């Protein structure tokens, strides 16, 4: 009985960790996509009839929007769906390796 309860607790913990990681990665991906489309919106502005100050500010905004905003983990890894896929692949590889070691012992 205690082994099944422990198994259930570990499964529930794993599901919570994976869902939390997927939420962060999905939000990071959405933010990156949205900020990448800002530059297109700046280019579509009818700037010919605007003041010189507005045109200069628009040029600065276009220049700054060339680099999309990304959420990073510790300033090392971008938090997006690609990183989520990489983490899940690495986790599964480690799991299968450890499972193979344990099954050989028994």
UniProtKB/TrEMBL annotation:
Compartments where found: Cell membrane
InterPro entries in alphabetical order: 7tm6_olfct_rcpt
Record membrane topology: Multi-pass membrane protein
GO cellular component, one term: plasma membrane
GO-annotated biological processes: signal transduction
One function term, GO molecular function aspect: odorant binding
One matching Pfam family: 7tm_6
Superkingdom of origin organism: Eukaryota
Major localization listed first in the record, in broad terms: membrane
Keyword list, A-Z: Cell membrane, Membrane, Olfaction, Receptor, Sensory transduction, Signal, Transducer, Transmembrane, Transmembrane helix
Signal peptide segment: 1-27
Protein name: Odorant receptor 7
Species, as recorded: Subpsaltria yangi
């Amino acid at each position: 009985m205690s082994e099944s309860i422990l198994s259930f607790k570990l499964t529930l913990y794993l599901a919570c960790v994976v869902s939390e990681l997927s939420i962060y990665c999905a939000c990071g991906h959405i933010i990156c996509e949205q900020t990448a489309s800002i530059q297109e919106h700046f280019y579509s502005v009818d700037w010919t009839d605007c003041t010189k100050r507005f045109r200069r500010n628009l040029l600065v905004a276009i220049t700054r929007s060339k680099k999309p905003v990304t959420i990073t983990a510790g300033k090392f890894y971008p938090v997006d769906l690609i990183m989520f896929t990489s983490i899940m692949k690495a986790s599964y590889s480690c799991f299968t390796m450890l499972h193979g070691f344990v099954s050989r012992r028994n």
